[in-house]
Amino acid sequence: MNKFGKKINWVLGVLFAGYWAYTLLSVICLNRNVAYKKRTYEYSNFVPTLLAVIILAVIFWAAGKKVISRIEKIEKKKFYLLLIVMDILVFGVQMYLMTYLSKPIRYDFQRVRETAIKLAEEHTFINQAYFNYYRMNRNILFVFAMLVKIFKDWQPVIVIGLLLVNLSVFFSAQICYKLTGKKSIAFAVYLIGVFMFDFAYRSFVPYTDNYGVFFLTAFLFVFINWRDKIGWNIISVILLAIGCYIKITVAILVIAGGIVILCLQIKDKKKFIKQAAILCLVFVCTFGGIMKMQNSYFEKNGFVDDPSIQRGLWHYFMMGQKDAYLGAVNVKDIRYTDSFATVKERNAANREKGIKRIKNRGLVGNLFFYTYKNFQNYNDGCFSPVQSVTKGEEKYGNSLVEKIFIKKKAYNRYYALMEQTLWLLVLSCIMFAGIKTKNNSKTMLYLKLVILGVSAYTMIFESRPKYLFMFIPVYLILAGLGLNELNNKRKWIRKIS
């Protein structure tokens, strides 16, 4: 790193550690009732916090009893084989659960699903107004329509979504192994990811999150393993472009990458500029090429683009500053935006109202608002479960699976407790990752920037815990690095004693 990079790394390290301590303390200490309509974890955090501490204590005990060292002695090939076998078994369990949890869902999911089926089977574009309002959902619509067209059924769309989530956890564990060199850390991250991510209710609902997450994680996997090879860099950029196409918030990785580049000590600038130009061209061509195919397909099937009714970025900024809703979607703000005739008028009104809300709160008011909003975003290990069944469709039954996974069913509180405990464990481990490490400093800087970027996005714009869901692999990787740092501190403490 250059001198500027070292300063940035130090500043961000301090900022990250401070912010994360603030986030962790707010999640543990704040009352759940401050969140809008209790959309976060609905019970006290005392028990999950206690359980998270117990798990960390067990890890310490396992390390002291050399239980973990036995995992380290496993041959590399056998370790990979173990993870692959476990991943196949996990996917089999997911397929079983899918039969109970793949009921039609209301809201955005319903619109995308029914439009994709109509497009693929009848070449008819329905819900046109919706896709003019929410333009970014056109992209996942195109993906789903192509899949339904290929497989002649909707069920494969759910299966592929689960497979992509499954592979994301697998890649996250592999990345942890690459960065730490510890099989035990990779194994721990894999187990946490399986129970917190693979078996999350949201993973069973095909949408931008469980499709985009694979390309985000695959990009990190390829880039971290083979960053010095231009061929692999091209592949990683293609994966990143597809991820941005599916979910625009993946662009946070691009912005974070740009900041890291500014911090690097580049020896051969001509070579770097040449490679950077090639990679930028690959990104633009990949993203633009898919968009061109999409627009052509939609036009052929009767879609009429109407930019005049779109809700722009300022709309989501305005909603993100709504006090009573803590940045969650609300009908009043939607009606306010739609009351203006043109995009220009709409954007100006949204910007003015959003800024006015910030000014009216004052310094103290903003401090409380953003504290509560940050709390709402991070206090939900289930990440805003989507469990509304489509009106007129089949209702959820009374099977054991549904009693566990479906909100307000008999055993769901125990499932929510497990998810919240694992999430608090991840958040706690990330705290240790905030400690400066000598190894992989550039990678650490990059991952911290991504998390800070995600947090900043959810603080500024419309937000709910679900907006963190797609970035779970990044949180898992940082948690793995934190566990590794914690283990190093254990050795240091033992030497002193």
How would you briefly describe this protein structure?
The protein has 497 residues and is mainly alpha-helical.
Overview of this structure, please?
It is built from 20 helices and no strands. With 497 residues, it is mainly α. The chain has one domain. Helix 2 packs across helix 18 and helix 8 runs parallel beside helix 20.
Structural class by secondary-structure content: mainly alpha
Tell me the span between the first and last alpha carbons. Answer: 36 Å
Number of helices, counting only DSSP H or I runs of 4 residues or more: 20
Given as residue ranges, the uncertain stretches (5+ residues, pLDDT < 50) are none
**Overall residue-averaged pLDDT value:** 89
Strand content: under 5%
Described by the principal axes of the CA atoms, the overall outline is: globular
Helix content: over 70%
Domains counted in the coordinates: how many?
1
The radius of gyration is 23 Å
Features:
497 residues, mainly alpha, 0% strand, globular
Topology:
Blueprint: H1 3-29, H2 46-64, H3 67-72, H4 76-101, H5 108-122, H6 128-133, H7 137-151, H8 155-180, H9 183-198, H10 208-226, H11 230-246, H12 251-263, H13 269-300, H14 313-320, H15 331-338, H16 343-378, H17 400-405, H18 412-433, H19 441-460, H20 472-496
Helix pairs in contact: 1-18, 1-19, 2-18, 4-8, 4-9, 5-7, 8-9, 8-10, 8-20, 9-20, 10-11, 11-13, 12-19, 14-16, 18-20, 19-20
